[in-house]
Structure formats: C-alpha cells, structure tokens
Amino acid sequence: MNINIRNAKKEDCLRMMELINELAVFEKAPDEVTVTLDHFTESGFGPNPVWQAFVATASPNAANGGEQAASTSSLPSPQSGEGEAENEAKIVAENAVISVAGYEKTFYVEEQMASDATRHRPSLFRRGNEGEAVVGFALYYIRYSTWKGQRLYLEDLLVTESMRGKGIGKLLFDRLIEEGKNKKYSGMVWQVLDWNEPAINFYKKYNADIDSGWLNCSLNF
After folding, report:
1. pLDDT, tens digit, for every residue of 120-167?
2. What contacts 156, CB < 8 A, 6 or more positions away?
3. Exposed/middle/buried for 182, CB within 10 Å: 0-12, 13-18, 19+?
4. What is the pTM of this model?
5. What are 89-120's pLDDT values in tens digits?
6. How far apart are CA 201 and CA 42, in angstroms?
C-alpha cells in the first residue's frame, strides 16, 4: 500500500471539506459546519492564508487493501520496539481521533459545493494527481502564547473511515511533530473531547499533558 504525507494543495480543499463534515457527524454536530468552500479555500490559499495542512494520500491499490503503509516521517515512535510500534499504529488507526462517520454520509457536501461538472456519484479516487486520493488530513495554524512563544495549534486530524487500520493517523501526527521541531516552535497544542477516551489514551502515549482545568469559550459574530 502506498500512503504519502504531503503539504495540502488548493485543489485538495473540496475533499478536505468532505472530511470536515465527516468529522462533524462523528462529533455529533453535523449542522455546525457553516464555512463555505470558497471561504475555506481563501483562508488556506488566498493572499493572507491563516491555516496550513498536511494531507494523507493513497493510491488505488491502497483502498483495496494493499501492502503495509509506508511512513514519510523520520520521526521515531514515542515507544520503543517493533512490536510496541506496531500496536501503537493499530491504536491510532482504530481510535476515535481518526474514527469518523461513514464516508458515504458526507457526499451531500459535494452536491452543495461542487460545480455541475463534478456532480456524480463519488468515487474515492475521482480526484487527485496520478490517481491518488486524499484519505485524511491534519490542519493547523500557528498561535502565540505569552508564556511559551510560538506554538503549532492542531485544529483537525482525521482519516476517512474506509482507510482506518492502516496507521495513517500516526503518520499525520508524527509529521506535525516533525514540522514543529523543524520550525523551532515551542510545542503543539490541540483539544480533545472529554468522552473521547480512545483519543485521550493515544495522546498519553506521546506523554501529552491533558489539562482539565480550562473551559472552552467562544463568541459568534
């Protein structure tokens, strides 16, 4: 199986929006995604981009259950030993960080957003370069902490349901850590739902600090 982790491109945005809605269904908030495709694309690839992302792509044979996924990151696993690393990859692939609702449930997004030329029953490999398909992504931006300085903020990490069990989530997460270290950021921060125990257990394998002392606040304009 050929899995590749690369920087997101403008043409990936439609597929990324499908996956975002897939995640919203899993998080029991399917109606909360109100951003438009144009706004999402402009925010990532316009004159003043505010987000960046890595995408995981698979070749057609990957979706049909090919060989073991190939890692594109040189970052070592937080655990030692081949057996432990294999178990960790399995945990990442199966946990709720990337365990999202069924792929087929989100195709109304394309019906709403795509041009008439692309409105047809979707195929996992209908888009992409040389037959590749975007099967997951990690979207992030840089935030500033007055205590810690520049930090990478992970907004979303997800892999489509049909591609779970292949260690793709681990490849994305390790690539984020590698990026943060290369850019000399002081660390990475993200959120996790308190009922998402599999995700919490996965993050603990990276020795992540999970703080229960803060409450989320938001204000809609």
Report:
1. 334 454 444 457 899 999 999 999 999 999 999 999 999 898 998 788
2. 20, 23, 137, 138, 139
3. exposed
4. 0.70
5. 333 333 333 323 332 222 223 333 333 323 33
6. 35
Q: What is the mean pLDDT of residues 197-214?
A: 85
Q: What share of the chain is helix, strand, coil (3-state, %, to 5)?
A: 40, 15, 45
**118 phi, psi to nearest 5 deg:** -110, 10
| Range 20-25 average pLDDT | 95
CA dist., res. 5 & res. 72, Å (int): 6
Q: Are 10 and 74 in contact (CB under 8 A)?
A: no
Catalytic residue of the set 103, 108, 141, 203: 203
Distance CA 129, CA 145 (A): 38
Triad 210, 193, 31: Cα angle to 5°: 150
141 catalytic, yes or no? no
Position of tokens 């600090």?
209
